Amino acid sequence: MSRSAILAGITGLAILFFLWRALPPPAVPTPGLPVLGKRPECPRHEGYVADSAGTRVVRQEIAASKTITLIPEFHDCQRLLQNAEKKSFGPLVAVFVRFDLRAVGDPVTTIGFACPQSAPVNSGSNIVARINAGLNVTLNGAITCTTANITAPRLDGTDQAAITALNYDDRYEPLGLQHGISCIYVYHVGTTWAAQLFAAPAADETGISCLKKLSEQTDGVMLDIRVVEEGAAPPPVTRWDWNGEKHLIGVACGTKWCEIAKGGLGPETPWITDATGKRILKGTYDQQFLAVPAGSELVPGPADGTILPVPWLTAGDPPVGSWTTVANGSLSLDVKKYHKRFKFKQKPVGQGTELALCRGPRNDCLPGLWKYFGVNKCEQKAEDGTEDPWWARLSIGDEVTYRCVTRRTHPAGSPVPPDVVRWRWDLKDEGIWRRCSTGCCEVT
């Protein structure tokens, strides 16, 4: 989610924790009309969407994402801009990355550096079986494989879709995304990357179609793809991006970052740099146009907001009563709504409002009268019902405010999310997801 608009505002922040607010089922959308009514957190999707007949359909775990479906740091969700003028919002669309994206490696030109199990051998026999039998195997008459240099094969991306897109509303023509599920494959063609889009059947509620091999799909649409050289491997995530003309989908592709669009890519999305001028890895930060009220609706506002992660915990929880800075947020223009609630101001990227977290009882974390006033509506309990208080401090210069934090743990068996931050889609305003130690924390 970068530099794009979202129908929401700033109510949540995700940290290596996972925080979700329970919301009632949203109103059933009217087919053919944009939906501005109440919806559950996106991309949590423990709620209802409507099929083409207006029937409520429950969508929870996305098939290709498995247990990371409910971990927002991996995915992205926005109400997309209708055009480059940024006058109005279009459909709400979530993009979910596959569970094992890291298994898809970079394109390679030769096999000479190692001995993959799937490589051709002179005898035509299975490499592993022959080695296990005590036999050496020669690759193409040149490379001798032994137990010391054999490696597991890397996937080329054709085994299943890299991204499952879920469009809650009308078709989004600029990317060809139908209402419901679409599957986007990001894969090797020789030594280069390619991307292809397939519309899933209307009856596919959880993206089962995206588990098919590329060769099993039909009626695909080729997409444009551009590889961005990062200098370091980006996190295994997907993000919405905006290049000033159109939305693009960004996703990690091997050790690089790829940008995907339809009908031409347009200019490359701008690089974000920190206060020292260092480039920030794509996929770790988030930048988008923030929404503002217009009557009973929310519309794209004049400012974009940028949130950068501040590296902190690698494992375990912080000491009780200790404040740790975890993110930095800034706006391109001052917006009263976001300053009032979160002290966000017009500042250069990386030089804005600091977000810090504290774990522990109110008296250990909050100063002075904040112990008694201003932060008094917190329901801070862990999922097992035990007390689990977390607090947020947002400060810039001599301005400071304290907020409640809700904490959720990640689903059992899910991997630790990458150290990233992203805006959160909500009914009322934008929020921020930021990684913390064993779940996600939402600033309320």
Descriptive notes:
Helix content is 4%, strand content 34%. It has 444 residues and is mainly beta. The chain is built from three helices and 24 strands. The protein folds into two domains: 47-103 and 157-443, no CATH class; 115-151, no CATH class. The chain has helices spanning 127-132, 336-342, 362-365; strands spanning 47-50, 56-59, 76-81, 89-97, 115-116, 137-139, 143-145, 150-151, 163-167, 180-189, 192-199, 221-228, 238-242, 247-253, 256-261, 286-294, 297-309, 323-331, 353-359, 390-396, 399-409, 421-424, 431-435, 439-443.
Euclidean distance between termini CA atoms: 20 Å
Output the number of helix runs. 3
Mean pLDDT: 74
Taking Cα atoms only, what radius of gyration do you get, to the nearest Å? 23 Å
> Main sheet: which strands, in order across?
3-4-9-10-11-12-15-14-13
- The total number of structural domains is 2
Q: Main beta sheet, described?
A: 9 strands, antiparallel
Structural class by helix and strand composition: mainly beta
Number of E-type strands: 24
The parts where pLDDT drops under 50 for at least 5 residues are 1-41, 43-58, 109-114, 117-125
What string, H for helix and E for strand, traces the elements in order? Answer: EEEEEHEEEEEEEEEEEEEHEHEEEEE
Helical fraction equals under 10%
**Inertia-based shape:** globular
Strand content: 25-35%
